[in-house]
């Protein structure tokens, strides 16, 4: 008879333990504050353009250009971080972005539309790459893989709140004061949040690992089949989100309830936040690839009820389900990206992930706008994007092998090997 006691179960991870870890609350709070302009700037630019004599079409164009230029520049800024460190990229980008947003009211769309367009595009190009930077910091800030798992889920889940709080704050400032003040507050929040992150010791000390392969030659390019297929699949996830936003507007017009255009995306984002909280608290024994594909299937299933052309109340509750699984898909995608990315290219790879979702979102918005007058087609587009994502993931599952190790510690865990140096 053995007297050996069974191993004690691992202690339950709490978000208090995550946020109580050194620098986590500062980095997460600073990143969320610094990224608020992602949800505020497009709305503030549109309101400012129309309030100063520009047309809605021109304001919409400026707003779209800001988001597009920000997304397209992500890989470049990610690569700069991998080469020069985070602070050297974050602070100059934040200063330029804030200065350009504050300068925008001076040019006036009715006086010089071309100059206004140039300022908006330049402001988008200089948005700080805070999201990719934070994901690169987690391994050095949280060496414990279970804490890192919870932090990544919390980080991913709270992103949707930016697009609820940001537009509401802009609308309140523009209504009570002016769109110009809303732009100024947007610029200030971006600068303060970015400085909070960039001046934190983990960000200042962060350095990329040396990009070497096992044979001593420079590291691999970001063109492995697994990474390429993963990023292609994520365009489908973005397509579903973009088409959902337009479907929300179509629902509001069809049911003559203007608030639906905000309530439906807010319900989706709330689902994302709650899904992240639940996912992060659990310890998973399944592989990351398995969770990624399972979450992709659930994300698709969550959109299918919309094909029944639900009423406003049923649709509001229905979109919570795909929102809940969005966080799981994105969190697993980041872990997979980390596993498949060669040393020294992590920030750039994260930036390509962000760009993939953003590009899909733009495509979904554009196509949904053309089909908005057809209720069934409009409701089917989010499911179509999710189905595309799941199909590509299933085809790519054999190429996602390195991510199959659950809760992988990662190449970043030992600061002495380059990515995070102690002073």
Can you walk through the features of this model?
There is one protein chain. This protein is mainly α and 423 residues long. The chain folds into two domains: 23-144 and 159-205, Growth Hormone, Chain: A; 225-407, MFS general substrate transporter like domains (Growth Hormone, Chain: A). It is 73% helix and 0% strand. It has helices at 15-20, 24-51, 56-72, 74-84, 87-107, 113-125, 130-141, 145-157, 159-176, 179-198, 201-205, 225-254, 260-281, 288-303, 312-318, 320-340, 346-370, 375-396. Helix 14 (288-303) packs antiparallel against helix 18 and helix 16 runs antiparallel to helix 17. The longest helix has 30 residues, at 225-254. The relative contact order is 0.15. Mean pLDDT is 80; it is low at 5-9, 213-219 and 403-423.
The largest β sheet comes out as:
none
Q: Supply the CATH class of the largest domain.
A: Mainly Alpha
Q: What is the straight-line distance between the termini?
A: 53 Å
At the fourth level of CATH, the homologous superfamily of the largest domain is MFS general substrate transporter like domains
Total number of helical segments? Answer: 18
CATH fold topology of the largest domain: Growth Hormone, Chain: A
Q: Radius of gyration from the CA trace?
A: 22 Å
